[in-house]
Amino acid sequence: MTQADVRGSIEVAGRTITRGDIEDFLYAEADILDAWDYDGWFALFEEGARYEVPTTDYRGWSLHTGGSFVDDDYDLIKARVKRLKSRKAHAENPHSRTHRLISNVRLFPGEEEGTLRIRASFVAHRARDGQFDTYVGWYEHVVVPTDAGLKYRLRRTILGHEALPVGARLSFIL
Amino acid sequence: MSSEVSERVAEPMLVEDWERLTFRVNREAYRSPEIFARERVDVWLRTWLYLGHETEIPDVNDFKVRTIAGRPLIFCRDTEGQVRAWLNSCPHRGTVLCRETEGSQRRFQCFYHAWTFNNDGTVAAIPDDGAYEDIESLQKNMMLRAVPRLEIHEGYVFISFNPDVPPLLEHLGDAADYMTMIEQQHASGVTTLPGVQLYSVRGNWKLAVENAMDGYHFSPTHNTFVGYLRESGFAVTDDNQYAYNLGNGHSLLVLTGHGGRISMVWEPRFGEDERVRTEEHRAEMVERLGEERAHYIADESHILFVFPNLLLFDIEGLSIRQLEPVAPGHTDVRAWQLVPREEHPDSRALRMKTVVSFVGPGGLATPDDIEAYEAVQRGIEATRGAGDLDYSDMSRGMRDEVKGEQGRSIDEGAMRGFWRYWEEAVGGGLAVTGDRPASFLEGRDVR
Ligand code: FES
Ligand SMILES: [Fe+2]
């Protein structure tokens, strides 16, 4: 997704979406996640949306034909949210403290009518159990503008690591 | 080593009491650098180790770079098609020879002084070799260093740093057939896929082994995952699930109540089309393998541990997991998905989704496993140096063992078998009180 035709705004389904709109969307999501508002996070997805985290050896293949870290359809996103809200999600009980930085936001026309693609960089820090872990990578999302704001059709997190470092399991949303 | 360390390690590693029916493991085994160093020599450099699957390097000149037992290796298929394992170190002065993680190459060239080697190990070029006295013997002596032993069973490539290790099949013993059973699941055989889960945990490698052989933790630890299965219409049970010691440190859990398996055991979340495909596949298996063998392969989930670094999860789908101890409290884990070579694309997509929904550091269940054994690694610091208190209890199921009843998956018999074998290899003392029941090491024969 490293195209030269980066624009500050994009026309989608008769609307103008600016980079500022997308940045606001991503920053709001970061706040929602850092505040552990998982219902609020789930509301960012349109029905039938997906959440994907490919493995660190990812070369762009479909997650349906290779291994991955997260390959959630809408039902599994729902199950993941339900799980994370439970006190019995031991890997996140007590919750991690997380802190996200998002940058290098760019927009591209989506492949499907009425969608746009986002590419952005992130750094996420997680404190838990006296440990401090850092995750870095890129977002490659597909979003749709709706009357209720932007919604995810695909939320994809691509890690910049060669392997998940010690302690850095993906028990929370990245 | 400080005297404090040697004193602590002087306590027996295992305390087994057949009068009180208790089995205890010294917690130093998980955290002592001295024991870790001893394991390196007495386990990792002595026995067979899982290197990788043949299907990871399907074509001539394919290679992967991988560290096993702390040693950088090149796992490759040479130009003749032969599978090789080379020490990834230049014979000249020791530089890491191949600094890529994977690829396809006929030759490996060291960047330092540009010595070049063919992937069959022979020297291709030594620049300016006129400076050496006897170039022919130099070339011979400077061939790539092979890992002393390499043998393959059903596509699983094993190596040993010990030239005198007994043949692989002898080491695998009863575990070998369970690997064959996986290969037999599909007429087309199985293959590994890209998308390798590479991750590290803050825990001792033996805690990862225990966790895999521990059905007792399933309900409490995976409470949220069990809830998800129930909601999607599948009953989860601990009944009729057994644990077996297969000898040589290998062990097996036979599970029937932990959710469905793609193309083997259907459950509602897989959908109607998959039900039809599962039935067709099952009929094909009966035709090909006979009713009994098909039953053992299809109706049960298996978790197979092949001592010391291979775990095969034949559960939601097929996963290979490899353990690489880095330090007493640090283990690298690598997990590959194994799939039928030929499979309906919808089944494949369902398989990938279903497997990673459970397995791996981003799934709905494995993070809780990792949490559990990382918490053990932290918690056992509390009893450091506390003598008799510094032991973990693994007695569960010994009562049935003395009665001659088959150990259940929700007992700790498979762990006891692992630990006895480990103690034989590493030493440190096994204190036994009373008489062991004759039946306590029974395996399982489904051939
Ligand atoms: S160390 Fe490799 S060529 Fe000199
Ligand atoms: Fe588990």
Rg of chain A computed from alpha carbons, rounded to a whole number of angstroms: 16 Å
Distance between the termini of chain B: 49 Å
**Structural class by secondary-structure content of chain B:** alpha+beta
Uncertain stretches of chain A? none
**Protein chains sharing the most extensive interface:** A-B, 43 and 46 residues
What pattern of helices and strands is seen along the backbone of chain A?
EEHHEEHEEEE
Q: What kind of sheet is the major sheet of chain B? A: 8 strands, antiparallel
What would you call the shape of chain B?
A: globular
Strand order of the largest sheet of chain A: 4-3-8-7-6-5
DSSP strand content of chain A: 35-45%
Total beta strand runs of chain B: 22
Percent in strands of chain B: 25-35%
- Which structural category do the helix and sheet elements of chain A fall into? alpha+beta
The number of helical segments of chain A is 3
Mean of pLDDT of chain A: 94
Question: Could you state the oligomeric state of the chains shown?
Answer: heterodimer
The coarse overall form of chain A would be globular
Name the hetero compounds present. FE2/S2 (inorganic) cluster, fe (ii) ion
Nearest-integer average pLDDT of chain B? 93
Explained architecture:
The complex is a heterodimer of chains A (174) and B (447). Chain A is an alpha+beta fold and 174 residues long. Chain A contains three helices and eight strands. Chain B is 31% helix and 26% strand. In chain B, the strands form five sheets. In chain B, strands 13, 14, 15, 16, 17, 18, 19 and 20 form an eight-stranded antiparallel β-sheet that branches. A four-stranded mixed β-sheet of chain B has the order 21-2-1-22. A four-stranded antiparallel β-sheet of chain B has the order 6-5-4-7, with no helix packed on it. At the A-B interface, strand 4 and helix 3 of A face strand 14, helix 9, strand 20, helix 12 and helix 13 of B. FE2/S2 (inorganic) cluster binds next to loops of chain B.
